[in-house]
Design goal:
Elements (H helix, E strand, L loop, with lengths): L1 E5 L3 H8 L6 E3 L2 H7 L3 H9 L6 E4 L5 H12 L5 E6 L2 H12 L3 E7 L2 H9 L4 E4 L1 H6 L4 H15 L4 E4 L5 H10 L3 E4 L1 H6 L4 H17 L5
Bound molecules: SN-glycerol-3-phosphate.
């Protein structure tokens, strides 16, 4: 499973990229707002921190406007992935951009039929929002399972990018359900490798090691 980090905070991205475990980055207008940075500047900086895809979202609502913005965003760096909303204009732009050789990420997916449409439009990634469905009392993970089944039925290459992830269990369950990628907030991504028994066990090993009086090397 690939891990993307869902943030426009360059310090967080740099720290995670340094681990060698980061496969890409996703941003959106809300994350750009949170960063306080100019979208062009911050996206360029992020693209220099990872070789993986960096999703940058268009903000126009119409096809022509989306295509114009996509051309501007695509100029930033080779690893920009154009993020488009799951609307008819967004799907039309997705088809055109994918056909022109760009990476695309269709976002704000809340149903399996929306995901089917994105695959037909040739999306590189489809972003089902798990947490926001959970917020409504709908099991977000069922959506991942449904999309996996549909894409496998027809051999679609579109990668399932589990988004709106809020917890470590969201990542685990997405992996079990067969999502190709999870885009994860920095704090949750860092928490994936944590376990209190690991910390406790390590403390005990280090305490015993100190008692041996030995050093390695
Ligand atoms: O990847 C989409 C994500 O940024 C939305 O997350 O927590 O606002 O639903 P959230």
């Amino acid at each position: 499973m690939k891990f993307f980090v869902d943030t426009a905070d360059v310090n967080e991205i740099r720290e995670l990229a340094d681990t060698g475990l980061l496969d890409g980055v996703t941003t959106n207008p809300s994350l750009i707002l949170k960063s306080g940075r100019d979208i062009m500047e911050v996206t360029k900086e992020i693209c220099g921190l990872t070789d993986g895809p960096v999703s940058a979202e268009v903000t126009a609502m119409d096809y022509d406007g989306m295509m114009k913005e996509a051309a501007v965003l695509a100029e930033i760096a080779d690893n920009v992935c154009i993020k488009l909303p799951l609307t008819m204009d967004g799907l039309k732009a997705c088809k055109a951009l994918t056909s022109a050789g760009h990476q695309t990420n269709v976002t704000l997916c809340f149903s399996a039929t929306q995901a089917l449409m994105a695959a037909k439009a040739g999306a590189t990634y489809i972003s089902p929002f798990i947490g926001r469905l959970d917020d409504m009392g709908i099991d977000g993970m069922e959506l991942i399972e449904d999309i996996r089944a549909i894409y496998d039925n027809y051999g679609y290459d579109t990668q399932i990018l589990a988004a709106s992830i809020r917890t470590v269990n969201h990542v685990k369950d997405s992996a079990i359900a067969g999502a190709d990628v999870a885009t994860i907030p920095p704090s949750t991504l860092k928490a994936l490798g944590k376990h209190p028994l690991t910390d406790k066990g390590l403390d005990a090993f280090m305490a015993d090691w100190a008692k041996t009086g030995q050093k390695i090397g």
